[in-house]
Write a structure and sequence with these properties.
This protein has 3 helices and 5 strands; from the N terminus they run H-E-E-E-E-E-H-H. The protein is of the alpha+beta class and about 160 residues long. It has a single domain, classed as Sufe protein. Chain: A, CATH 3.90.1010. Strands 1-2-3-4-5 form a 5-stranded antiparallel beta sheet, with helices on both faces. The protein is elongated and about 75 Å long.
């Protein structure tokens, strides 16, 4: 009995200190992860709206998007981050649109879909289907990756509708 209590106390101590160590590592790395994520988003925004010379963050009714400006300060479009639940992960994409609501470009920022099938949503062959489309236009999904591609399409369209209203 004493032996069992002794082993239990040792095991508890090891688990307790491991939990404290993991918590410390998480608190140290969390700001670095967030900073890297923000930097990736900024780079992606520049990639989908390269002609922008200024970006202004807008927060309205729980919706966050960016106004893209030219040298003169004129609005040349909008950029937003779209999130959707795909087949096996959350899919995050950055989307640029004209002031009239026409899609300029889409770039997938983050996804963890099935390699070779769901990951087709990151390929230019699929992303080019968005170019020139508006919120009510039809965009074909990928055969074999219907859940992932439809999730991205629906998410982009829903966010686009909210912004142009």
């Amino acid at each position: 009995m004493k032996e069992t209590l002794k082993y239990s106390a040792v095991l508890f101590s090891i688990c307790f200190f491991a939990a404290i160590l993991l918590s410390a590592v998480a608190s140290i790395t969390q700001p670095i992860i967030e900073e890297t994520k923000a930097e990736q988003e900024n780079n992606a925004i520049k990639e989908v709206m390269p002609q922008a010379r200024g970006i202004e963050k807008v927060e309205e009714e729980g919706l966050v998007y960016y106004k893209a400006k030219d040298f003169s300060g004129n609005n040349i479009g909008y950029v937003f981050i779209s999130e959707a639940k795909g087949y096996s992960s959350v899919i995050r994409a950055v989307v640029s649109i004209t002031p009239e609501g026409e899609i300029i470009a889409v770039k997938v920022l983050e996804q963890n879909e099935t390699p070779g099938i769901g990951t087709q949503i990151t390929e230019e062959k699929f992303l080019s289907r968005f170019k020139g489309k508006k919120a009510l236009d039809n965009i074909d999904s990928i055969s074999g990756a219907t859940v992932s591609s439809s999730a991205l399409i629906d998410s982009v369209k829903q966010t686009l509708k909210k912004i142009i209203q």
